[in-house]
Amino acid sequence: QQQVRQSPQSLTVWEGETAILNCSYEDSTFDYFPWYHQFPGESPALLIAIRPVSNKKEDGRFTIFFNKREKKFSLHIADSQPGDSATYFCAASPDTGYQNFYFGKGTSLTVIP
Amino acid sequence: EAAVTQSPRNKVAVTGGKVTLSCNQTNNHNNMYWYRQDTGHGLRLIHYSYGAGSTEKGDIPDGYKASRPSQENFSLILELATPSQTSVYFCASATSSAETLYFGSGTRLTVL
Lengths: 113, 112
Fold this sequence. Notes:
Chain A is mainly β.
């Protein structure tokens, strides 16, 4: 059972465009929603995260939009750069005290100069 | 910065053989995790631990065992390796509040 669904599987945008990556979840106990990015040959690293007390979290060109009612959240990458080309994973974690993370299957983003 | 070290970086094993993947973290994190990464599946949790002496099953524990002998070390053990266990394995650590997973560099395992 896939706890977190992610789309699209791959995405290509031109430099300067906004890339939009989408995720959804089923479990209403999920309380923490991070995004990780992974460059080729490297390990995943935390990019940005949100808790549902807020419906938006910004960090430079990266913004998470969160819709608790629809159980959806998305990552917007504004002014995409070729250096943003990577695989992006959304994740969700319940507020259970030990934080087991459920990851989406990933979106491979390519930014064309 | 959190430091998580995995060994070996690459491993070739034969079907039916025993494989041990090791992970060491120097950040005094309570939580440690083992994930495998496969194309089309993302990151899937195999085992995790809250601290020395504890191990818990994740989402895909079948065919794997884990051992946490100390705060710093967390091992993943494949008693009877199979070709379906060919994958990239990542170890990660986090504090008890676990807002950030710190991943190691990964181990690429090939089972022939």
